[in-house]
Amino acid sequence: MTAEYRQSFVQGGLCLLLAFAMFISCQQKRQEAVVTPWGEITDTIPTDDSFDLDDIQRNGELIALTLTGPATYYDYRGRHLGAQYLLAQRFADKLGVSLRMEVCRDTAEMRRRLEAGEADLICYPMTKHGPGWLTGSDKADLEQELAAWYKPSLMYEVKKEEDFLLSARSVRRRVFAPMLNRAGGVISHYDGFFQRYAATIRWDWRLLAAQCYQESTFDPQARSWAGACGLMQIMPSTADHLGLSRSQIFEPEQNIAAAVRYIGELEQSFGDIRERAERTKFVLAAYNGGHFHIRDAMALAEKNGRNPRLWRDVEPFVLGLSQPQYYNDPVVKNGYMRGSETADYVRKIHERWNGYRGVKTVRSTTGPTGVPQKAKRERKKKFQV
Question: Which terminus of the chain is less hemmed in, N or C, by CB atoms within 10 Å?
Fold first, then answer.
């Protein structure tokens, strides 16, 4: 190939490339400059902000924004719940894509992020006319698909589903007696395992047995809707973290041993609570409700002048995390939680532990903050500290 021919070939190719780039530029709203061996030309990849239904389905993910709360979205023992989340999940299933739900601090943040193209829609609570959801301004097809999909019966269905998931009916288990042989001091068939592994974390084995009964009523095959398995109701993801094989998750000894490893980790994470009896309550609460939620309650206690390392001072704020004025507080990093369940979990385990030890449980006539017992029972509706 002569030098003249080579130069003519390169110039001809450059002209064709530039002509193609000019054609593409007419089809786009925005272009980006790209440097080539021949100079700077227009990129041929579409870069406009339009990202409608076809693009979402091609990408395989629906991104939704919401606020934390019992009617919207929250974490429950490692799984996601909330009517808005469940409804959005059904819509994502209809589209054939996965759902990514992201929590914002307020409505202003949701709108700003939607306008910036960081999400596909905002999930508001429902109205009587349909979903109170907003789609991006460039998503006319998505909005039309949403309007055609929604039926009033869907909200009833997701609320019924959530009620079932939060009830005891959602846990498949046989109910065994809380004590196998009271006269002989035999609690369960697994007492030997409790004794062996509780010693490694310096727990009374009867406390571990009381926790096990609260989790599974001593049924090694128990399984919850969220996927928690076995005697100590270990989530598969937690089992992976603890080195417990999925094939061994229902084996009594392996399940108890893994649970004790996890309890040991929680003991270390609450090492700033020096008093062992107090730390145990925080560990149990974290086992049930999640470590980060308990830390949120501790932050609230400290902010309000209470002792963040004393359970009776922190428990009211665990309960308070079900109320907007608390789970929306700036010191709270992990949003809403079902605090009443966690508080009951700690209380019931201690009461059963006392029974196993032959210690009479004495219930105070006042709540942990001096609130009369009647008012304490009403805190689920109106919480005050």
Answer: N
